[in-house]
Design brief:
Elements (H helix, E strand, L loop, with lengths): L1 H16 L3 H9 L2 H7 L10 H14 L4
Helix pairs in contact: 1-2, 1-4
Length: 66
């Protein structure tokens, strides 16, 4: 589930920000959101890609998950 979510987040980052796959993967894997996704106690890994992408966008804009 987590791998599929990361793939969808990466594709959306590539589309919206015009990044290469390497840049997009780096952004996702180095985000605070990714740390929370892999922490199964947060439950974020089973939320929709859209929900998680909105959190990622906020983190990109604000520098943290608000």
């Amino acid at each position: 589930m987590i791998d599929s979510l990361v793939e969808r987040l990466t594709l959306r980052v590539m589309e919206e920000y015009g990044l290469s796959i390497t840049e997009a993967l780096s952004l996702v894997y180095n985000s605070q959101l990714y740390e929370k996704i892999v922490d199964v106690e947060t439950g974020l890994y089973y939320q929709s890609a859209s929900y998680n992408y909105n959190l990622l966008r906020r983190e990109i804009m604000l520098g943290k998950i608000a």
